[in-house]
Each structure stands twice: as C-alpha cells, then as structure tokens.
Amino acid sequence: MKSQDKPPATPATLALATSWIVVFVAMIAYQGGLQTGGNIISTGISPWTSHPFGDLTSRELLRGQFWKPLTATFVHYSIPHIVLNLLGLYQLGRLVESWYGGAQFLGLYVVIGYFGNLLAGLSKPFLAWALHPWVTVQVVGASGGGSGVLCGLVAMLAVVGWRSKSRYGDYLKGQMVGVLVFTAILGIVIPNIDNYGHAGGAIVGALCGFLDPILLRRAEQPRKSRWIGVVSVLGILAAFALQGNLARSESLDQARGQRMVEQGVAARREALESLSRLGLLFRELSRRGPRDILVERAPPIPGRRPPTRPELAAAAESTAKRLETFPEGVGDRQTAQSVKVLLDLTRRAETRRPTPGEIALFDRHFVPVVTRIQQEQASLTGMLRQLRLRQAARDQPVKKKPPVAGG
Q: Among residues 118, 110, 179, 109, which one has the least CA distance to residue 143?
C-alpha cells in the first residue's frame, strides 16, 4: 500500500464511469423517459427496461444466464442511484487505480462485480430455503448497480489498511469499516436495496485485499499487467454481447407468444360463436314438424318472415361444416368428442324433428363444451392483457412500477 497526495490520471475509473452513464442514458432512450413514483433509489427505470440491459435475478442465474452478474453492475435504476454510485466510484476508483494501475483496477472491478453478484444471486434461494419459516428472504425481483463493486472496494481497502499495521492503515481501516456499517444501515432503512449484493461484493473485495502485495509488485511492471485489462474489457464486451443476443431472442419470443395467444383467443371466440349459432338452430329445428310447422311458435318479429325448415337446415349444415374443422388446441379430447355428438344430432334434426331424448343429449354435451371453451378464452384473455400491459409499461412508462432491488 502506498499513499499519495495527488493521485495520477485514472483512465480506467473514467472509462467505467462513462460506461455507466452511457448505459443509463440508453435505458432512458429505450424507455422513452423516466418513471415517477416509488422511492429515491428505484424510481426511474422500469423492470421491463432494465431486464433487456442485463439486470440480475436468482431465477435467471440458475437458468444458466451466467454473464448477468457482470452486466448488472452497469444497470442503474434512477438518477440518485447512479449519481451516488458515480461519486463512490470517483473516490474509491481513483485511489485504488493509483495504487495498482488501470489494468489491475479493471480486473478488480470484474472480479468483485461478477463474483460478488454471483455469490448474492446463489445465496438468496439457499437462504430462503434454509431460513424458512423463521425469516423471509426476498428472492423475487431484479437487482443492478455498481454499489456491490463499491462495497467490495471499501472492504478491500479496509483489509489493506488492517494488514499494513501503520497509522495511515488504521485510519483507512476505520473509515472503510464506518462506510460499510453506514451502507448496511442504509440498506435496512431504504426499501428496494439489494443488501445481498452489497454483502457479496464486500466478501469478495475483502478476499481481494489479501492480494495487495502481489498487486503492488505487478503495478511496478505495467506492461506485464496489460493482459489483465485486456481480458477484463473483453469479458465485459462478451457479457454484453451475450445479453444483447438474449434480449433479441426474448423480444422475438415475446412477439411470437403474443401472436399465438391472440390467435388462441380469436379461435375460441369463433368456436363459441359457431356453437352458439348451432345451439340456436338446433332449438329452432326441434320446434318444427316435418312439414315446416312451428310446433311452439315464438312471437313473430314485425316485418320479418320466419325462416323455413330448408333454410334452417341449410344454415345448420353450414355451421356444422365450420365446426367440423374444430381449431387444434381448443378444448380437450372430450370436448372434441362432445362436438362430434352435437354435429351428429344437428344433422339428424335437419331432416326430422329431434326426440326429447335427443334434445336432452344435446344439452348434456352442449353446456360442458361451451363452459370449457369459455374458461380457456378467459384464461388466454387474461394472459394477453398481461402481455399488453407489459408492453405498454415498456413503451409508455408513466405509472409506478413494481418493486425492484437496486444495488
């Protein structure tokens, strides 16, 4: 560890700060503005916006999206969120970079950011299982931000100060421990802060503090340390390349899924309309004798001639033919069998009046079929509504968003 009154130029710190700002501005442009409502940390960027830019959830991590612990360090949710982290990066980054050089500082950023978030993302579901039912561990919700890295740098500096056995080291250790305690209290007081991300970064950063002698020796030979910076930059670029590919794939899947749901709703609406028409025609045919005599005549409609039996039979046959090609996926096997029975009974009624037993059989099959398709239509309509609300929240983010953890 070495102390300097005026640290030299720190290009790596400047580059990281610039990249944070670029990603934040890109999210605002993608979202079309900042949201309002919520708390000071998590208000501004919606989860529908931060997700394609690489925020982190334990579920996605367990599904194999291994690059997100790194991309999440670049995602910030509000102006205060990114401003506070930029201030911390400026203070801590230029100090650490002045000690170890820009290449090694980039390496520390990647190691602390990635493994800190990895530790936090994997520990949440484990702690939720181990501590249930005594303590509720928040597993659902995305997290992002560079404060996990900052907590790691703070913990690293605390360890370096503790190991230095000097007056400056004791001062540094005291200051850094105070920052960690203040951060922990802040995470408890303010909701939607990912304390697990802070803790994971602090643990990894503290371990990195024991590498101080090695890092200092390498700092004296910057040419030999360049490969660390090159690998770190390539790692960041590769993580965002993987995230961009995933975002495009998810966007296509979402559009394809929405079209399928819309088609499913339309198919069931058409099936219900055809079934309703078939039921009305069957009822009308069941009230007419073989000579087109209305057995139970309904009140006549002024100015409208009642349809004849041949006209009713032709309409029933046309409707039956439409239902013969029952849309695939509508209902189940029993539904298809019931529709077949309804079509058979309707075709019999085209040539003769149905018997009371046939009318009862029609009703026994008609009601469950209609009920089943109505239930499917209601379920798909609700799903379609959620998809459209999600799309609207991303395109026009003007309402308060659901909770998201900021780090």
A: 118
